[in-house]
Amino acid sequence: MRTNHEIDFRIVGEEMQYVEIELDPNETAIAESGSFMMMDDGIQMTTILGDGSQQNSGGLLGKLLGAGKRLLVGESLFMTAFSNVGMGKKKVSFASPYPGKIIPLDLLELGGKVICQKDAFLCAAKGVSIGIDFQRKLGTGIFGGEGFIMERLEGDGMAFVHAGGHVFERQLQAGELIKIDTGCLVALTQNVNYDIQFVGGIRNTIFGGEGLFFATLRGPGKVWIQTLPVSRLASRILSYGRGHSKEEGSVLGKFGNMMDGDGW
Q1: Buried b (16+ CB within 10 A) or exposed e, 21-53
Q2: Is the CB of residue 31 less than 8 Å from the CB of residue 96?
Q3: Are 146 and 185 in contact (CB under 8 A)?
Q4: Domain containing residue 231
Q5: How many structural domains is the chain composed of?
Q6: Which residues 6+ apart lie within 8 Å of 56 measured at CB?
Q7: What are the CA-CA distances from residue 250 to residues 109, 237, 247 (Å)?
Q8: In terms of Cα–Cα distance, which of 25, 56, 63, 18 is closest to 42?
Q9: Is residue 252 part of a domain?
Q10: Residue 3 lies in a domain
Q11: What phi, psi does 145 have (nearest 5°)?
């Protein structure tokens, strides 16, 4: 039996997706600020402190403490609730912020808890708790970038997260270990043992260009991995915006720039 609001949905699109959520009367979906796309008449939009879950119902102080933790992961104190206050079914849609895929997570089927990257959460059924999950080893967590603080989604309803590029699932068997770039990790189930490991080696550190740390994930459990972290995309766009590219400085690079109309 679900205690969170039970919602129907469909995901539309290929590279720039949006999720359309169907709400019965008195059902509510919650979303991060800026993810709203469109809604039917009869849906009421309300700004709430925290996520509106039962865990944040312990008075104003409890709500402030729960919402304040979201500031640590770069999120707002407030979220937006979309409630069907009309007659019949109504629809509300939320769009992905950059090219990639929207991942539906049924928390009831995933053991009631999923840990995800701090900027991955898009929207969820009311009742889902959105908190923070600290990496256990504080020292490596601080220097591990994306791996230090992650978001924790708890409940038995549907939640939706967004990731960049192509997204795929990896089912880890008991004791199976994989190592991935911290930015490529999207989400993992609660049974997966997650840690951050130093790459090691002076040449790797100085000349590798892949960062100093990677995430180690040990099964059993399920992991979602993205091919294009938004930080990597932003870095590449910024690099080209400044006029720098990998072929710059070579004869072919100069020739290519001329062909593009950039001159010498």
Answers
A1: bbbeeebbbbbbeebbeebeebbeeeebebbbb
A2: no
A3: yes
A4: 8-244
A5: 1
A6: 49, 50, 62, 63, 66, 67, 129
A7: 54, 20, 6
A8: 25
A9: no
A10: no
A11: 65, -115
69 and 13 Cβ atoms separated by less than 8 Å:
no
DSSP state of 219: S
Determine the Cα–Cα distance for residues 216 and 206; give it in Å rounded to an integer. 21
Locate all alpha helices (DSSP H) within the chain, ordered by sequence.
59-68, 138-143, 202-207, 230-241, 251-259
Q: What is the pLDDT along the chain (264 residues), one digit of tens a residue?
A: 778 898 999 999 988 899 999 999 999 999 988 899 999 999 999 998 777 776 555 555 555 555 555 565 556 678 899 999 999 999 999 998 888 999 999 999 999 999 998 789 999 999 999 888 765 554 444 444 444 578 899 999 999 999 998 999 999 999 999 998 888 999 999 999 988 777 665 454 444 444 567 888 999 999 999 998 877 777 777 777 766 555 444 444 544 444 344 444
Residue 220 lies in a domain: yes
Q: Tokens 């997966």 correspond to what residue?
A: 192
- Domain of residue 177, CATH code: 3.60.160.10
Backbone angles phi, psi at 223, to 5 degrees: -130, 140
Q: Does residue 54 contact residue 2 with C-beta atoms inside 8 Å?
A: no
The reply to whether 262 falls in a domain is no
